[in-house]
Amino acid sequence: MSLVSRLNDLPRDKADTLLLLAAALMVLAPHMGHLPLWTSAVVLATLACRAAITWRGKRMPPLWLLLPVSLAAMAGVYASYRTLLGRDAGVAMLALLLAFKLLEMHARRDLFVVIFLSFFLLLTTFFYTQAIWMAALMAATVVVLLATLMTFQYTGAVPPLGRRLRETGRIFMIATPLAIFMFIAFPRFQGPLWGLPGDAHSGKSGMSDTMSPGSVSSLALSEEVAFRVRFFGAPPPQARLYWRGIVLSGFDGKTWSRDSRLLYASGENVRDFTIAVDGDALRHDITLEPTGKRWLFSLELTAPDIDVPGGVATSDELELMARQPVNERLRYSARAWVNHQWQADLPQERQVKWLRLPPGYNPRALELAQSLRRPDNPAASVQAVLAMFRREQFRYTLAPPPLGRDTVDDFLFTTRAGFCEHYAAAFTVLMRAMGIPARVINGYQGGELNPVDGYLTVRQSDAHAWAEIWLPQRGWVRIDPTAAVAPERIEHNLARSLPQSAPFGLDGLIGLRNNPDSWLSQLRFGANALNNAWNQWVLDYNPDRQRSFLEELSLGFFNWRGAAGIAAIAALLWLLRRMRRRTTQDPADAAYDAFCQWMAKRGRERLPDEGPHSYALRLQDMELTEAGKAAMRSFLELYGKLKYGRPDARSSASAATLNALLNELIKKN
Q1: I need a surface site. Which of 17, 40, 280, 616 has the fewest CB within 10 A?
Q2: Which residues pair with 559 in a beta bridge?
Q3: How distant is the alpha carbon of residue 279 from its chain centre?
Q4: Helix %, strand %, coil % for the chain, to 5?
Q5: Which of 464, 507, 540, 589 is catalytic?
Q6: Coil, helix or strand for 212?
Q7: CA 465, CA 217: separation in Å to the nearest integer?
Q8: How far apart are CA 334 and CA 306, in angstroms?
């Protein structure tokens, strides 16, 4: 006997319990990726044990066995997280509690405890991800949970599982318009409705405020989205998409870090920002993913009038920082000028901090700087260093060899292989050794333009480091030494600048992915556009967007065009409903309606609470021919059997018989 046949032949209590286990597994599955390995193993083993007990008809384990196991699991949670509070520890305890409760069901009340606990655990999934695919999975899980809840309500025969799922799906769809209306119209609060656990924003990854060899390359393999950009007009070329973030001026011989600096409030007129721009500003909106940090990224060069809820602070090195850590997705608008000049009149006494080098480090690099230095010509000195990178056998790689104490010396004279942070750090040290003020910029370079929705997606793999030097009469100038070694990285993307290799013969798939015109890329663009629309219109529906949307909606409704549109939609819905009723009405019901209308014209209208048997008794004294009375009795008797008899008694032939009897009744009278 096949497994499907055995499932269909199971007793009702076993089938219902297995359905409950399937619903619990759907609830627990999304948490397996972030729970400790031992927790996932215990949960799966518990579910498997409960399924085996149900399948074989064995007794449930006793309480004296479950209690120490539960206490040991709670101790394991404390050992893993060093607390029983917070997001991660709380979710782990809820998952274990749900699994153990399935082994401790003795009454009908316990079934509902499991289902309601599953609904609660379902909500915690959105602590970790709110992607559209997860929302779809959660909607399907809700339907299965509702079907499980409905199953336990039946006292007689239970419909097939497919019919129950369709019924709960219909219930879910009926509730969806009300949920959408509440989502759009219910007043929204700034921030969550309830306080999140203290660790709810932990585990964020992204750009750091320090840089050492390997810190940027660790992000290069991450496809996680850093932010998305929508330009109001044509975007600049790929090679000019430098997203400025963190300025690193301090250097201790190995690690670059942020130095002390001045901070200015948003919109404050600061004399340090002597900026000259050329051309029109590039207006763009940025949707920044949560980072847990204050850094904001924007296209070079963005004036410090960026529009951020709550305001933004700006450092004297043109860093942009939010007032609070970015723990939620943040949208802001900015204006940027690709052609710019700033701080061209920087006093010499203020250049000191960008010339400091730690004593006793990288002696060979200092000697190299003196040999390449062009006195009284800083621009020529810069070109000499870049020419060295192009001429010598330097390599651009994600896996450079480890470096010793003198990191720059080892890179320039020994390994000659590195990622962008190696080239930016070495170039900045050489510049400072030549007496040219220089600093390292951490940010992102490039992005992928999605032709479906027009958004530019910047990922963690686009993380980049470059240098910024100060030249007389020109001010701060961006220099990217990586472009001298791997120009493909700047003009295209990281994937084009590194050697491609794939296991198991997947090189063709890599080629399809990198080709923007391939079917795989088009599929990926469509999925990214759908996910971006979900982020923009659902997850980012904040109080400001709600207010503006409702204002636009009210302006559209309160005019003659809006009123005419509403009337047309209402008429169309009414017409569709009428057509649907005509096309979906049961043939037997249609014949019965025609019979009732014929009787109503003769003064014998059917009462609202009157069934066909009662109606027939009241119609016995009507003045009809004997043939007509016989046809009437046969009609009502057959309709009663079709309507209230066994479902398998219905057929198209029975409906045709009803119509024939009705025609005979009308013809004989």
Answers
A1: 280
A2: none
A3: 37
A4: 55, 15, 35
A5: 464
A6: coil
A7: 10
A8: 5
Which tokens go with 204? 């964020």
The more confidently predicted of residues 521 and 48 is 48
Hunting for tokens 């963190």 — which residue is that? 246
Of these residues, 16, 406, 410, 480, which one is catalytic? 480
CA distances, 551 to each of 177, 275, 333, 545, 569 (Å):
21, 38, 21, 10, 21
Predicted structure pTM score: 0.68
Token digits of residue 240 = 């000019």
Supply the DSSP string of 48-109, one letter for each residue: HHHHHHHHHTPPPPPHHHHHHHHHHHHHHHHHHHS-S-SHHHHHHHHHHHHHHHTT---SHH
Active-site residue, 480 included: yes
Number of alpha carbons in the 13 Å side-chain half-sphere of residue 659: 10
Structure confidence at residue 555 (pLDDT): 67
The C-alpha atoms of residue 288 and residue 433 are separated, in whole angstroms, by 37
Q: Best-predicted range by mean pLDDT among 207-216, 415-424, 499-508, 528-537?
A: 415-424
Q: What residues pair up with 576 in beta bridges, in sequence order? A: none
């040290």: which residue's tokens? 429
| CA 251/CA 427 separation, integer angstroms | 13
User: Exposed, middle or buried by CB within 10 Å (0-12, 13-18, 19+), for 2?
Assistant: exposed
Tell me if residue 422 is catalytic.
no
Torsion of CA 396, 398, 403, 407, to 10 degrees: 50
Q: Beta strands of 463-537 (E only): which ranges? A: 463-471, 475-479
Residue 35 · residue 92 · CB < 8 Å: yes
- Give 392's contacts (C-beta < 8 A, 6+ positions apart): 416
pLDDT tens profile 517-571: 677 777 877 777 777 777 777 777 767 677 776 776 666 656 656 666 677 777 7
Better pLDDT: 220 or 580: 220
Could you say which DSSP state residue 535 is in?
Answer: I
**Inter-CA distances, 21 with 51, 99, 112, 348, Å:** 7, 9, 13, 73
- Tell how strand 417-418 and strand 395-396 pair up: parallel
CA distances to 70, 211, 310, 318, 424 from 303, in Å: 58, 25, 17, 8, 25
List CB contacts of 412: < 8 A, sequence separation 6 or more: 364, 365, 368, 426
Residue 464 annotated among the catalytic residues of the structure: yes
Catalytic residue among 406, 409, 420, 462: 420
| Structure tokens belonging to residue 102 | 């399935």
